[in-house]
Amino acid sequence: MIEVRGLAKSFGNTKALTGVDLVVEPGTVHGLLGPNGAGKTTLVRILATLLRPDSGSAFINGVDVVARPNKARELIGLAGQYAAVDELLTGRENLEMVGRLYGLSRKEARVRATDALERLTLTDAANRPVKTYSGGMRRRLDLGASLVGRPMVLILDEPTTGLDPRTRAQLWDFITELVREGTTVLLTTQYLEEADILADRIMVLDHGRVIAEGTADELKARQGGDVVDVKAEDPAMLSKIAEMLTGIAGTPQIDERSGRVLVPVGDRRGVDVLTTVALTMSDHDIALDDLAIHRPSLDDVFLALTGHGAADVETEDSDSELDGVDSTPQNRRARRRAAKSAGKAA
Ligand SMILES: Nc1ncnc2c1ncn2[C@@H]1O[C@H](COP(=O)(O)OP(=O)(O)O)[C@@H](O)[C@H]1O
Ligand SMILES: [Mg+2]
Questions:
Q1: Alpha carbon distance 93, 49 (integer Å)
Q2: Which fold would CATH assign to domain 2-220?
């Protein structure tokens, strides 16, 4: 349904995409996972005919998006991180307007708007101006707008970044329902969990390059299963700690940014590794701030694949409120810790 070959795009000296290949089978969800600045939106915009590639080709259901953008646009719906809806119109008016832009009759636009509002549980708010909507409602309306044209391919660019967990779960259910009905979905995300739940296959992008491709399980296997996460009180001890923990399970990885050592449990039982780590630390009188075992996060997979954490990649909007990398639980924790220790020092 989607076929991309050797796609490249630069902005000045920034190589946003460097020869990306992608194949998405009909009726599946393909997750495009990567930190801020990885090139996800650039790929999405090329597929949505909003941007021309420097080289390479992209087809939607056999239609060349560069050569036949109008035809390609009939096949796709696009919804994104920043809901593009008119504040002053009501939810219903927004959807009907989109329907009219698709060339639907007034009647058909009304029918589809009603349908989309119902499916996204916005019926009660349908006749209120969008400026009274919450962030989650706007995002649902934006998704509704992308469905009015009944697209074969739905492209979602970070649809849940910045949403609360409940609204996020609702959107996940809804996306799953669309796929069951036959829609093909390309979804970009910064959350491994999201790709894990929704995506049949995942492509990991970093600096415009594909660094891994596979199912969620395959990616986690590359990381070595669960990780034991060791946060030392003294960050100067990180490499010593990594040395002490070498050989008990997977190769310890040092994450300088968050001051942690991560030990992939590999084939061993997580609790056994956790216990061994705790005993080893106590034997060496190493004071810990935190010791935990968790599923690999996007950060962990990134660390394993690239040697740098996802949030190390600087972008101009890296401190914005909606920025997903900054609002991962790990980073929120790291920020709280930093705030706490700053308080201690003062
Ligand atoms: N219109 C643009 N002009 C200049 N640089 C851009 C533009 N769009 C994207 N970039 C740069 O290209 C890179 C990839 O950006 P993007 O595709 O938005 O990444 P993502 O969506 O994964 O965060 C980044 O370094 C970004 O700053
Ligand atoms: Mg983006």
A1: 26
A2: Rossmann fold (3.40.50)
